[in-house]
Each structure stands twice: as C-alpha cells, then as structure tokens.
C-alpha cells in the first residue's frame, strides 16, 4: 500500500492564485523526491461546526478558505527522505514563499488501509 502525507491549511481568499502557483512550483520537487501524485483542494462546502470542523481545526478567519490536500508516496521512507531534504536542498527555499499562515497548517502521514475505485 502507498503512503499519504495529508494537510489542512487556511489560505486568504485573495491569495488563491498565488497559492495555486506555489503548489505548481513545489510539485516538480516533490516528484523528484519520489512523490507519485498530489492534490490541492480549495474549500467549496466546508460548514462551521459546533464541536469540531475543518474551519475550527485551522482557526479559519474571515476572508480565508480551507485547503485540503495530500501527496501520495510509494512508501513512508520516500516521504521521510523528501521532508528531510527541506533542510539540505536549496531548491525548497525557492518554493517557500507561502501565501498563507503556516502556523495554522495541520499535517500528518497516513498509511492506507482501504482503497477502492
């Protein structure tokens, strides 16, 4: 089974195009490090919750949208090597102009336990 790096982050709606450009700029590096695919999804139907929700998880503020995304890897080791390269590969510094507040980004690694389709 493959490994997935998933994340949620709030992005100012005014920065949507800059966010998309940043994602496009980073993808070739992730691919160089072995990523199989990626997806970045802009909020379309993300309701506020009472006890928990995507907006609450990232402390979405007025004028922001929630972005949900993931990177698909062949295995955890490949993902770990890629993320370790953030400290050593200068090319990452060229992609780090993040058009959002990275302090409110939530991320983690997941092992797939079921897939269909």
What keywords describe this structure?
alpha+beta; four-stranded antiparallel sheet; 117 residues; Alpha-Beta Plaits; single chain
Overall description:
With 117 residues, this protein is of the alpha+beta class. The chain has a single domain (3-111), classed as Alpha-Beta Plaits, CATH 3.30.70. The chain contains three helices and four strands; from the N terminus they run βαβαβαβ.
Task: Characterize this entry briefly.
The protein is α+β, with helices and mostly antiparallel strands. The chain has helices spanning 16-32, 54-57, 76-84, and strands spanning 3-12, 37-42, 64-73, 106-111.
List the helices and strands and how they pair.
Elements: E1 3-12, H1 16-32, E2 37-42, H2 54-57, E3 64-73, H3 76-84, E4 106-111
Antiparallel strand pairs: 1-3, 1-4, 2-3
Mean pLDDT comes to 93
Note the total helix count.
3
Residue stretches low in confidence (pLDDT < 50, at least 5 long) are none
Structural class by helix and strand composition: alpha+beta
């Amino acid at each position: 089974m493959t490994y997935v790096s998933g994340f949620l982050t709030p992005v100012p709606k005014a920065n949507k195009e800059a966010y998309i450009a940043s994602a496009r700029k980073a993808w070739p590096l992730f691919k160089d490090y072995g990523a199989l695919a990626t997806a970045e999804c802009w909020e379309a139907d993300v309701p506020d919750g009472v006890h928990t929700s995507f907006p609450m998880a990232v402390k979405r503020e007025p004028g922001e949208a929630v972005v949900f995304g993931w990177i698909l890897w062949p295995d955890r080791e490949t993902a770990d090597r890629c993320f370790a390269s953030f400290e050593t590969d200068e090319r990452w510094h060229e992609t780090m102009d993040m058009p959002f507040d990275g302090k409110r980004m939530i991320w983690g690694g997941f092992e797939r336990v079921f897939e269909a389709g």
